[in-house]
Amino acid sequence: ERERSQQPGSDIKAVFSVARCRGLVSGLQHSVDVTQKIEALTWCGLVHEFLVSGWPYDRNGTSVYKDGVSAAGEGALYPGETGTGPPGLDTNSSGKDWTATRRLPQALIIGVKKGGTRALLEFLRLHPDIRALGSEPHFFDRHYARGLDWYRSMMPKALDGQIVMEKTPRYFVTVETPARVHAMSQDVKLIVVVRDPVTRAISDYTQIISKTPDIPPFESLAFKNRTTGQIDSLWSPLWIGLYAQHLERWLAWFPRTQIHLVSGERLISDPAGELGKVQDFLGLQRIVTDKHFYFNKTKGFPCLKKPEGSSKPHCLGKTKGRTHASIDPEVMQRLRDFYKPHNQRFYQMAGQDFGWQ
Ligand SMILES: Nc1ncnc2c1ncn2[C@@H]1O[C@H](COP(=O)(O)OS(=O)(=O)O)[C@@H](OP(=O)(O)O)[C@H]1O
C-alpha cells in the first residue's frame, strides 16, 4: 500500500485497517521511539487526530483523547502524508510553518543500479526529517520534457525543514542528467551507492534473465570475443560499473563535497554506520541508528526491526537480495582484471578505497 500510494500520479492514500492500527498505535503509546510513532500515525491516517486530541488509542485499543496533550508532548510529532495540519495548528510555538507543500527535491540518490539504492531509501525514510518518493520518477533521464512542475507534483508533501528526496539509479549513468539536475538546483545533495562492479554486473544480469529467460549466458554477453578475452565494455551491465567515467561527468557540474558515496557492501554489513554518514551529509540528526536494524539470517540481509504491535518485521522484497546466476570463475577473474584500473581511478577521485578485489 505504502509503495502504491507513492507511485507517480497515484491518489491512493495508504491507510492500514482500523484493527491493525489499534494494535500498532496502542502498542506504541508509551514508546520513546518517536520515529516509530510518527510512522504509525502517518500510515494509520491518525496524524490529525493526534494533533487535535493527543495519542489516539490506549493499550486496550480504546480511545485516549484528552485535551490536546499527547503522551509524547504537544508538537513532538510531525503531520504526515495528509499535509496541512488542523486549523489553529498551522504554526507551532516557535512560529514554524506546519503546512506541508510539494517541493522539488533537495537530495537525490542518483545511483548506481543494483548498488543497494532501495535499501538506502527505505532506511532513510525512517527519519522524520526526510520525505522521500517511494517510486523512481525518472524525471531527468526519461520525463524531462514534462517540466519541473510535473516533477514537483510527483513529490510527497513536506514541511519546512524536512528534506525531500527521490531515487532513480539510472541518473548516474545518463549523459544529460548532471546538467539538468544542475539547472534545477546547484545546491542539491547527491548520493551514490557503489558496489563491486563485478558483483553489480552479475546482479544486473540476474535481474535481466529473470525477466527475459531466453537471453544468452552472461559469459557470452560480457565478451566481444571470448577467445581473445576482449571485454564488451559497452554492454550495459559492464558499462554501468565504469564508475570513474560516470563520476567525472558529475564532477564537471558539482563539487566533490556535494556528492556522497555510500559503500554498497557496508550498507549490508553495517547499515547503521553507513546511515550515520548519510545523515551527517544531509545535515540531519543521527536518528536512524543500529537500534532500527537486525540481521535476518533467512534473508541474509539487514532488515528493519518489527514495529511494536505489528506482526511483521520489514525486509526488502524478493527482488532484493536474489541468488545470483553462477558465473565461470575464469570469467570473474577476467572481469576483475578489467575493472582494476578503473576502480583505482575511481578510488582516487572518491578519496577512498572501497576494497574491491
Ligand atoms: N537490506 C538489504 N536487503 C536486501 N537487499 C539489499 C539490502 N542492502 C543492500 N541490498 C542490495 O541491494 C541490491 C539491489 O540494489 P538496488 O536496490 O539499488 O536495485 S535497483 O537498482 O533499484 O533495481 C540487492 O542486490 P542483489 O543481492 O543482487 O539482489 C542487494 O544485494
Automatic annotation (TrEMBL):
Gene Ontology CC: Golgi membrane
Recorded family membership: Belongs to the sulfotransferase 1 family.
InterPro entries per UniProt: NST/OST, P-loop_NTPase, Sulfotransferase_dom
Protein name: Sulfotransferase
Topology within the bilayer: Single-pass type II membrane protein
Keywords from the named record: Disulfide bond, Glycoprotein, Golgi apparatus, Membrane, Signal-anchor, Transferase, Transmembrane, Transmembrane helix
Location of the Sulfotransferase domain: 105-342
PANTHER family: HEPARAN SULFATE SULFOTRANSFERASE, SULFOTRANSFERASE
Pfam family, any one: Sulfotransfer_1
Annotated GO MF terms: [heparan sulfate]-glucosamine 3-sulfotransferase activity
Encoding gene (name): hs3st3l
Keyword Membrane: yes
Active site: 114
Disulphide connectivity of cysteines: 303-315
Binding site for 3'-phosphoadenylyl sulfate: 114-118, 195, 203, 320-324
Localization in the cell: Endomembrane system; Golgi apparatus membrane
EC number: 2.8.2.-
